[in-house]
User: Which sequence fits this backbone?
DNA sequence: GCTCGTCCCATCGACTGTCGATGGGAGCAT
DNA sequence: ATGCTCCCATCGACAGTCGATGGGACGAGC
Protein backbone atom coordinates (compact mmCIF):
# COMPACT_ATOMS: atom_id res chain seq x y z
CA UNK A 1 0.00 0.00 0.00
CA UNK A 2 2.47 2.67 0.97
CA UNK A 3 3.02 3.57 -2.61
CA UNK A 4 5.19 6.25 -4.08
CA UNK A 5 1.84 7.84 -4.55
CA UNK A 6 1.95 10.53 -1.91
CA UNK A 7 5.04 12.19 -3.29
CA UNK A 8 5.89 15.70 -2.34
CA UNK A 9 2.25 16.67 -2.65
CA UNK A 10 1.46 20.40 -2.71
CA UNK A 11 1.20 21.34 -6.35
CA UNK A 12 -0.33 24.64 -7.20
CA UNK A 13 -2.19 24.95 -10.40
CA UNK A 14 -2.03 27.83 -12.79
CA UNK A 15 -4.18 30.55 -11.27
CA UNK A 16 -7.11 31.36 -13.49
CA UNK A 17 -7.50 27.78 -14.55
CA UNK A 18 -9.62 26.65 -11.67
CA UNK A 19 -12.91 27.87 -13.09
CA UNK A 20 -12.27 26.02 -16.29
CA UNK A 21 -11.45 22.82 -14.47
CA UNK A 22 -14.57 23.03 -12.36
CA UNK A 23 -16.80 23.71 -15.31
CA UNK A 24 -15.32 20.77 -17.15
CA UNK A 25 -15.79 18.53 -14.15
CA UNK A 26 -19.42 19.49 -13.86
CA UNK A 27 -19.96 18.93 -17.56
CA UNK A 28 -19.68 15.24 -16.81
CA UNK A 29 -22.52 15.44 -14.37
CA UNK A 30 -23.73 17.13 -11.20
CA UNK A 31 -21.41 16.89 -8.27
CA UNK A 32 -20.84 18.38 -4.83
CA UNK A 33 -17.81 20.36 -3.73
CA UNK A 34 -15.98 17.60 -2.00
CA UNK A 35 -16.57 15.34 -4.96
CA UNK A 36 -15.27 17.88 -7.44
CA UNK A 37 -11.99 18.09 -5.56
CA UNK A 38 -11.68 14.32 -5.62
CA UNK A 39 -12.48 14.04 -9.28
CA UNK A 40 -9.82 16.58 -10.13
CA UNK A 41 -7.26 14.82 -8.03
CA UNK A 42 -8.12 11.47 -9.51
CA UNK A 43 -8.31 12.57 -13.13
CA UNK A 44 -4.99 14.37 -12.89
CA UNK A 45 -3.39 11.41 -11.16
CA UNK A 46 -2.71 13.33 -7.98
CA UNK A 47 -0.98 16.22 -9.66
CA UNK A 48 -3.81 18.68 -9.12
CA UNK A 49 -4.61 19.12 -5.46
CA UNK A 50 -7.42 21.57 -5.10
CA UNK A 51 -8.07 22.54 -1.52
CA UNK A 52 -11.59 23.22 -0.43
CA UNK A 53 -10.63 26.75 0.47
CA UNK A 54 -9.86 27.33 -3.17
CA UNK A 55 -12.88 25.49 -4.36
CA UNK A 56 -15.71 27.16 -2.50
CA UNK A 57 -14.84 30.73 -3.39
CA UNK A 58 -14.62 29.59 -6.99
CA UNK A 59 -18.04 27.94 -6.82
CA UNK A 60 -19.50 31.11 -5.37
CA UNK A 61 -18.12 33.00 -8.31
CA UNK A 62 -19.62 30.57 -10.76
CA UNK A 63 -22.97 30.70 -9.02
CA UNK A 64 -22.99 34.47 -9.11
CA UNK A 65 -22.26 34.53 -12.79
CA UNK A 66 -25.00 32.03 -13.42
CA UNK A 67 -22.76 29.39 -14.90
CA UNK A 68 -23.74 26.79 -12.37
CA UNK A 69 -26.73 26.26 -10.16
CA UNK A 70 -26.84 24.54 -6.81
CA UNK A 71 -29.36 22.45 -4.97
CA UNK A 72 -29.25 20.60 -1.72
CA UNK A 73 -29.59 16.88 -1.66
CA UNK A 74 -28.12 13.76 -0.19
CA UNK A 75 -24.82 12.29 -1.19
CA UNK A 76 -24.25 8.64 -1.96
CA UNK A 77 -23.14 8.22 1.60
CA UNK A 78 -26.38 9.72 2.76
CA UNK A 79 -24.94 13.00 3.84
CA UNK A 80 -26.17 16.51 3.35
CA UNK A 81 -24.55 17.77 0.19
CA UNK A 82 -24.90 20.65 -2.20
CA UNK A 83 -24.97 19.52 -5.79
CA UNK A 84 -23.73 21.85 -8.48
CA UNK A 85 -24.96 21.62 -12.03
CA UNK A 86 -23.84 23.32 -15.18
CA UNK A 87 -26.34 25.76 -16.69
CA UNK A 88 -26.73 26.49 -20.36
CA UNK A 89 -24.70 29.64 -19.92
CA UNK A 90 -22.12 27.59 -18.08
CA UNK A 91 -21.81 25.26 -21.00
CA UNK A 92 -21.18 28.15 -23.33
CA UNK A 93 -18.67 29.56 -20.92
CA UNK A 94 -16.87 26.26 -20.77
CA UNK A 95 -16.43 26.25 -24.52
CA UNK A 96 -15.22 29.83 -24.53
CA UNK A 97 -12.75 29.35 -21.72
CA UNK A 98 -11.47 26.21 -23.27
CA UNK A 99 -10.74 27.98 -26.52
CA UNK A 100 -9.09 30.85 -24.74
CA UNK A 101 -6.99 28.43 -22.74
CA UNK A 102 -5.84 26.55 -25.80
CA UNK A 103 -5.02 29.82 -27.47
CA UNK A 104 -2.83 30.89 -24.60
CA UNK A 105 -1.10 27.57 -24.24
CA UNK A 106 -0.34 27.58 -27.91
CA UNK A 107 1.15 31.05 -27.69
CA UNK A 108 3.23 30.11 -24.67
CA UNK A 109 4.50 27.03 -26.41
CA UNK A 110 5.58 29.09 -29.36
CA UNK A 111 7.76 31.13 -27.06
CA UNK A 112 9.00 28.13 -25.15
CA UNK A 113 10.05 26.27 -28.26
CA UNK A 114 11.72 29.16 -30.00
CA UNK A 115 15.32 29.08 -31.09
CA UNK B 1 -5.81 48.95 -43.80
CA UNK B 2 -8.00 48.26 -40.82
CA UNK B 3 -7.02 44.68 -40.89
CA UNK B 4 -8.19 41.96 -38.61
CA UNK B 5 -4.69 42.25 -37.29
CA UNK B 6 -5.26 44.35 -34.24
CA UNK B 7 -8.03 42.21 -32.97
CA UNK B 8 -9.43 42.71 -29.56
CA UNK B 9 -5.94 42.99 -28.10
CA UNK B 10 -5.64 42.71 -24.34
CA UNK B 11 -4.87 39.11 -23.65
CA UNK B 12 -3.76 38.21 -20.19
CA UNK B 13 -1.38 35.37 -19.76
CA UNK B 14 -1.63 32.69 -17.15
CA UNK B 15 -0.34 34.24 -13.95
CA UNK B 16 2.75 32.49 -12.74
CA UNK B 17 3.99 31.93 -16.25
CA UNK B 18 5.67 35.26 -16.71
CA UNK B 19 8.89 34.30 -14.98
CA UNK B 20 9.22 31.26 -17.15
CA UNK B 21 8.65 33.26 -20.31
CA UNK B 22 11.21 35.85 -19.33
CA UNK B 23 13.81 33.26 -18.46
CA UNK B 24 13.25 31.55 -21.76
CA UNK B 25 13.51 34.81 -23.64
CA UNK B 26 16.80 35.60 -21.97
CA UNK B 27 18.13 32.14 -22.70
CA UNK B 28 18.35 33.23 -26.31
CA UNK B 29 20.61 36.10 -25.38
CA UNK B 30 20.85 39.22 -23.24
CA UNK B 31 18.10 41.72 -23.70
CA UNK B 32 16.63 44.80 -22.09
CA UNK B 33 13.14 45.12 -20.66
CA UNK B 34 11.53 46.82 -23.59
CA UNK B 35 13.07 44.27 -25.90
CA UNK B 36 11.82 41.35 -23.86
CA UNK B 37 8.28 42.59 -24.15
CA UNK B 38 8.64 42.89 -27.89
CA UNK B 39 10.16 39.48 -28.31
CA UNK B 40 7.31 37.91 -26.40
CA UNK B 41 4.75 39.72 -28.45
CA UNK B 42 6.45 38.78 -31.69
CA UNK B 43 7.12 35.15 -30.86
CA UNK B 44 3.57 34.61 -29.73
CA UNK B 45 2.21 36.35 -32.78
CA UNK B 46 0.61 39.14 -30.78
CA UNK B 47 -1.24 36.86 -28.40
CA UNK B 48 0.94 37.62 -25.42
CA UNK B 49 0.96 41.29 -24.56
CA UNK B 50 3.17 41.86 -21.59
CA UNK B 51 2.92 45.36 -20.23
CA UNK B 52 6.00 46.98 -18.81
CA UNK B 53 4.29 47.29 -15.48
CA UNK B 54 4.14 43.53 -15.33
CA UNK B 55 7.61 43.10 -16.63
CA UNK B 56 9.69 45.24 -14.32
CA UNK B 57 8.40 43.82 -11.06
CA UNK B 58 9.08 40.39 -12.48
CA UNK B 59 12.61 41.33 -13.43
CA UNK B 60 13.23 42.66 -9.93
CA UNK B 61 12.11 39.32 -8.58
CA UNK B 62 14.46 37.45 -10.85
CA UNK B 63 17.35 39.73 -9.94
CA UNK B 64 16.73 39.23 -6.26
CA UNK B 65 16.71 35.50 -6.61
CA UNK B 66 19.91 35.64 -8.59
CA UNK B 67 18.49 34.08 -11.70
CA UNK B 68 19.40 37.02 -13.89
CA UNK B 69 21.97 39.76 -13.66
CA UNK B 70 21.75 43.24 -15.10
CA UNK B 71 24.19 45.72 -16.50
CA UNK B 72 23.77 49.07 -18.09
CA UNK B 73 24.73 49.62 -21.65
CA UNK B 74 23.57 51.17 -24.87
CA UNK B 75 20.82 49.76 -27.02
CA UNK B 76 21.05 49.32 -30.76
CA UNK B 77 19.36 52.68 -31.10
CA UNK B 78 22.02 54.18 -28.92
CA UNK B 79 19.84 54.64 -25.92
CA UNK B 80 20.52 53.97 -22.29
CA UNK B 81 19.36 50.45 -21.60
CA UNK B 82 19.65 47.85 -18.89
CA UNK B 83 20.59 44.48 -20.26
CA UNK B 84 19.50 41.38 -18.42
CA UNK B 85 21.43 38.13 -18.69
CA UNK B 86 20.66 34.66 -17.46
CA UNK B 87 22.95 33.36 -14.71
CA UNK B 88 23.89 29.73 -14.20
CA UNK B 89 21.27 29.48 -11.47
CA UNK B 90 18.80 31.05 -13.84
CA UNK B 91 19.46 28.41 -16.40
CA UNK B 92 18.79 25.68 -13.88
CA UNK B 93 15.67 27.46 -12.80
CA UNK B 94 14.48 27.65 -16.37
CA UNK B 95 14.78 23.92 -16.75
CA UNK B 96 12.98 23.28 -13.49
CA UNK B 97 10.14 25.65 -14.23
CA UNK B 98 9.76 24.27 -17.68
CA UNK B 99 9.36 20.76 -16.34
CA UNK B 100 6.93 21.89 -13.73
CA UNK B 101 4.95 23.76 -16.33
CA UNK B 102 4.75 20.77 -18.65
CA UNK B 103 3.70 18.62 -15.75
CA UNK B 104 0.85 20.92 -14.89
CA UNK B 105 -0.29 21.34 -18.45
CA UNK B 106 -0.33 17.60 -18.88
CA UNK B 107 -2.42 17.16 -15.76
CA UNK B 108 -4.84 19.85 -16.84
CA UNK B 109 -5.19 18.28 -20.24
CA UNK B 110 -6.03 14.97 -18.66
CA UNK B 111 -8.92 16.61 -16.90
CA UNK B 112 -9.98 18.59 -19.93
CA UNK B 113 -10.05 15.56 -22.19
CA UNK B 114 -11.84 13.26 -19.81
CA UNK B 115 -15.09 11.58 -20.64
C1' DG C 1 -24.90 4.73 23.86
C1' DC C 2 -20.33 6.99 23.11
C1' DT C 3 -16.45 8.07 20.48
C1' DC C 4 -14.04 8.66 16.64
C1' DG C 5 -13.10 8.93 11.75
C1' DT C 6 -14.80 10.40 7.44
C1' DC C 7 -17.66 13.24 4.73
C1' DC C 8 -19.18 17.77 3.52
C1' DC C 9 -20.12 22.56 4.37
C1' DA C 10 -17.97 27.30 4.69
C1' DT C 11 -15.25 31.64 6.06
C1' DC C 12 -11.28 34.59 7.13
C1' DG C 13 -6.73 36.62 6.75
C1' DA C 14 -2.49 36.79 4.35
C1' DC C 15 -0.04 36.86 0.37
C1' DT C 16 1.44 36.88 -4.43
C1' DG C 17 1.18 38.42 -8.99
C1' DT C 18 -0.70 41.27 -12.70
C1' DC C 19 -2.53 45.46 -14.62
C1' DG C 20 -3.70 50.47 -15.67
C1' DA C 21 -2.24 54.81 -14.92
C1' DT C 22 1.40 57.73 -14.45
C1' DG C 23 5.87 60.07 -14.88
C1' DG C 24 10.30 61.03 -16.78
C1' DG C 25 14.54 61.39 -19.68
C1' DA C 26 17.21 60.92 -23.85
C1' DG C 27 17.99 60.29 -29.00
C1' DC C 28 16.38 61.34 -33.69
C1' DA C 29 13.81 63.24 -37.48
C1' DT C 30 11.17 67.15 -39.28
C1' DA D 1 11.74 73.32 -31.12
C1' DT D 2 8.46 69.78 -31.41
C1' DG D 3 7.23 65.56 -31.13
C1' DC D 4 7.84 60.64 -31.64
C1' DT D 5 9.80 56.39 -30.27
C1' DC D 6 12.59 54.12 -27.06
C1' DC D 7 13.51 52.71 -22.40
C1' DC D 8 13.42 53.25 -17.47
C1' DA D 9 10.45 52.63 -13.21
C1' DT D 10 6.83 53.05 -9.39
C1' DC D 11 2.28 53.08 -7.19
C1' DG D 12 -2.35 51.71 -6.05
C1' DA D 13 -6.08 48.62 -7.01
C1' DC D 14 -7.64 44.15 -7.61
C1' DA D 15 -8.32 39.17 -8.31
C1' DG D 16 -7.36 34.59 -7.09
C1' DT D 17 -5.31 30.98 -4.27
C1' DC D 18 -3.88 28.95 0.04
C1' DG D 19 -3.46 27.58 5.10
C1' DA D 20 -5.78 27.56 9.11
C1' DT D 21 -9.87 27.04 11.31
C1' DG D 22 -14.52 25.64 12.74
C1' DG D 23 -18.58 22.98 12.67
C1' DG D 24 -22.34 19.44 11.88
C1' DA D 25 -23.96 14.83 10.71
C1' DC D 26 -23.54 9.94 9.50
C1' DG D 27 -21.66 5.17 10.39
C1' DA D 28 -18.63 1.81 12.54
C1' DG D 29 -16.68 -0.17 16.50
C1' DC D 30 -16.36 -0.52 21.42
Assistant:
Amino acid sequence: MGRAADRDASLELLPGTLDLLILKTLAVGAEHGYGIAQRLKALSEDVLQVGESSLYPALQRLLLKGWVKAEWGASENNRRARYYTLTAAGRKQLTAEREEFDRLILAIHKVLNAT
